[in-house]
Each structure stands twice: as C-alpha cells, then as structure tokens.
From TrEMBL:
Pfam families to which the protein is assigned, alphabetical: Dus (PF01207)
Keyword Ribosomal protein in record: no
UniProt protein name: tRNA-dihydrouridine(20/20a) synthase
Site (Interacts with tRNA): 111, 200, 313, 316
Upper lineage: Bacteria, Pseudomonadati, Pseudomonadota, Gammaproteobacteria, Aeromonadales
C-alpha cells in the first residue's frame, strides 16, 4: 500500500530534527541489510532514536521500474531515510532517483559494495569498483535529476585489486561526479570463493585505510562501516571521520539505538524503556495487521530488544512459537512482554 508523502512543512521539520545539535543525520546510521532492514524494522528502530539515519534494503532499479509491488513504500515516521539502489544503468538509476525524491526520500545511496553472486550477475554491487567511470556516470546521472543528496557505499577493494591507489581512483571519479558523501566498509570483498556472510567476516578490517582516505580527501564527507560493535568504538572512529554506520550489532541488540541520540547528537530527550518501546510499537502492529501483514513479519525484528536481561529467552521463544500462527495479533506480543520482568530495567 502506498504511503502518504509528507508535505513541505513535515520535510522541513524532519530536516531540522535530523540536524539538532549541529550534527548531520549521517553522523550515525544503521546499515542497509538485505532481508533485515525492511520498513517494519525501520519503524521499530525509529522508536528508539530520532536522529539515527536509516537505510532501506538494497532495491534494484529493475524492481522499482518493472516489479509488481511498491518497492518505494515507507512510513513517514521512519525518516530521515535513505533509499539504497542497486543498478549500473545511469538512465534507470536517474529515473528511480526522480521517483524516490517524489515519494519523499531524504537521500539516495548507490550500492558499490555487495559481493553476492546474484548482485554480480546483475552488474551492480562490489564488482562496480572495477568500473570507476561507470560508477561516476551513474552518480552524475542521478544528481542531474534530483536535489536530494546522492551517496555511494563501497568496499576498500575487490579480489586482487585492493591497493590504496585503486581505491583512490574510484574516489576521485566520485568527487568529480559530485558525490555528496561516501560510506566505506573497511574490508575488501572477494567476488569469488566467499559467501556474502564470509565477506563480512573473513577479509581483515583496515580502518586506517579509511582514515587515510579522509586525510587525503578532507573535503569529502566519509563514514565508516564494518565490525563496529559499540558506541564507544563509534566515538573513536568519529575522531577521524564524519560518520559511522553499524549493521548487525544494532539488529541483534536494537536497544543500543536508545543511547545514540544522547551519546552522538547531544540530544538528551527522554528515551522510553524497552517495555515501553514495544508498547509504542503496538499501534503500528495493529495498523499493519489490518492491512494483511503477518505478525511475525514485524516481531522478528524485535527479538533482541531484551538481550542480556532476565526473561529475554522467554520473550524470544513465545514470539518465535506463536507470531507465525494464523490470526496471531497483538495479544501474542503482550503475552510475550509479560514474560520479561519490568522491574529489571537496563538503559545502558
């Protein structure tokens, strides 16, 4: 179902909220993760941080232009929100960029980092690192059509093409094309021989290379991604770079987001406790159930919110065993919530 596009006033208010405290929303972001950061996940995450920048899953140009579903749907509450695009046809990317801007997305991001075989077969993702001129053409084509920022997410190298000079060649072309910012996953990708999961774990992290990139190109806004597991680590990276992006750590321990606004944006607004976050999610669940969404499609993103607390296992088990059943509703969530002692509160 198509969501209502926000009006100009809501766009202005959202922009002001995203930059409160003098920081851009890109200072902290949640990584785009295929099959994970769908619109239900993003709504849930936004309940814990109003400044963290959220990303869609990667959406291909083919899906947007020729698919049967609405691949651009989102709830306004998710913003600031970035649409990550997968593709290598400048014209198709430009067309998708226009559609995304019309729908109210805050930013566009081109995926030049995903190493999966499926992505490579479509000629996009990490394999595009070997085609810097084409990547630059894609960015320039989008920027020519929209006013919102156009950014790129990449790796530090691919296969045997992993020299610093190789990375700089891409970066210089992106700067010439007008790229607004760059997010760098501080690992290279092996296009053959490793699964996407192994590509997130086996190639060694090289944070220093990303720091060096910022020193050599100080005018380019650069954020770092890869292996970051805490806000203390994030603060360390922010001594060298403009932004940090966390992925799986946030997904597996989502209440980490409750610390972000105060820790990284100087925003001391009152943050709801874990139980209240779930209660705040219930109206959304009821709305989505009314649209035909299965309960489990939403609750699967909430399983880690009580991580490390008494009752966390019972919470996960009850949802895992019952949320998928036909007719499952908010009473399943309420019953699961009752299994976690509310007297035990942990805001750390």
């Amino acid at each position: 179902m198509t969501e209502i596009v926000r009006d100009s006033n809501s766009r202005k208010n959202q922009s002001e909220a995203a930059t409160a405290g003098g920081f851009s929303s890109g200072r902290f972001s949640v990584a785009p993760m295929l099959d994970w950061t769908d619109r239900h996940c993003r709504y849930f995450h936004r309940l814990m941080s109003r400044h963290a920048q959220l990303y869609t899953e990667m959406v291909t140009t083919g899906a947007i232009l020729h698919g049967k579903g609405d691949y651009l749907a989102f709830s306004p509450e998710e913003q600031p929100l970035v649409l990550q695009l997968g593709g290598s046809d400048p014209a198709a990317l430009a067309q998708c960029a226009v559609l995304a801007e019309q729908r109210g997305y805050d930013e566009l991001n081109l995926n030049v980092g995903c190493p999966s075989d499926r992505v490579q077969n479509g000629m996009f993702g990490a394999c595009l690192m070997a085609e810097p001129a084409l990547v630059a053409e894609c960015v320039a084509a989008m920027k020519a059509e929209v006013a919102i920022p156009v950014t790129v997410k990449t790796r530090i190298g691919i296969d045997e093409q992993d020299s610093y000079a190789f990375l700089c060649t891409l970066v210089e072309r992106l700067i010439e094309a007008g790229t607004d910012s760059l997010i760098v996953h501080a690992r290279k990708a092996w296009l053959k021989g490793l699964s996407p999961r192994e590509n997130r774990e086996i190639p060694p992290l090289d944070y220093e290379r990303v720091y060096r990139l910022k020193r050599d190109y100080p005018g380019l806004t650069i954020a770092i991604n890869g292996g970051i597991k805490s806000l203390d680590e994030a603060r360390g990276h922010l001594q060298h770079l403009d932004g940090v992006m966390l992925g799986r750590e946030v997904y597996q321990n989502p209440y980490l987001l409750a610390q972000v606004d105060a820790a990284l944006f100087n925003d001391g607004h009152e943050v709801p406790g874990r139980h209240q976050v779930i209660r705040n999610l219930l109206p959304y669940i009821e709305r989505e159930l009314g649209r035909g969404t299965y309960l489990g499609n939403i609750t699967r993103h909430t399983l880690g919110i009580f991580q490390g607390l008494p009752g966390a296992r019972a919470w996960r088990r009850h949802l895992s065993e019952n949320a998928h059943k036909v007719g499952a509703g908010v009473e399943v969530v309420e019953a699961a919530l009752a299994k976690v002692p509310e007297a035990v509160l942990d805001y750390s």
